[in-house]
């Protein structure tokens, strides 16, 4: 159990830095950004594909002539889950997997093995049931993180934006706050103002990098919990028996017996 908990700490490619600026310039937040953004796109596509495959499999599972179609639906879900396992390499290592082997011949044997495999239901739980929650987590983390990064780059583009004023006219610059100028906000229309705002956003982004990495770790922990094989309850006992120690069998030496000349005196 200890080894399983250690495997749920996806920190090999997203190490935490004590210094916020070092954290910002490290690869960890950018790997986390790629992982979260990839799920927003790919995860949504997998949700639609897996949902359609499961519905098709459920509808036609009772018809003998469509057994092959049902098996194909299971394979579609498995392929989507395999891509998600491979995507984990962005922030950690690919997630291991283990599916139930087919022991009975024929399409019915394949259908029984695939549809009674607990790994298939864990794949469906991750791809379908948890998709709204994981999508919300990733979208919120990316929205905050990318907004702050856009603020850091203000000096590069503030002069090319026309913002609407309260009287309906337009002027060069960016307004932080109410975009129509009717509410509180800060007007960025000069280089000093843009550089000052960029420094503030940089400080905020340095601390926000911890949040985006934490979101990626939380997402990956959920993926590990559902997409990897369950731990073997006898793994620790097997390790102890396989290691050298007092429980390891020792070879016995033959006891030396009397020679052929013993007991006979000349």
TrEMBL record:
Domain Putative sensor: 35-227
Chain positions covered by the region annotation Disordered: 240-266
Assigned keywords, A-Z: Membrane, Transmembrane, Transmembrane helix
Record InterPro entries: Put_sensor_dom
Coiled-coil zones: none
Transmembrane feature ranges: 47-77, 135-160, 193-218
Any Pfam family the entry gives: Sensor
Protein name (record): Sensor domain-containing protein
Organism: Streptomyces tamarix
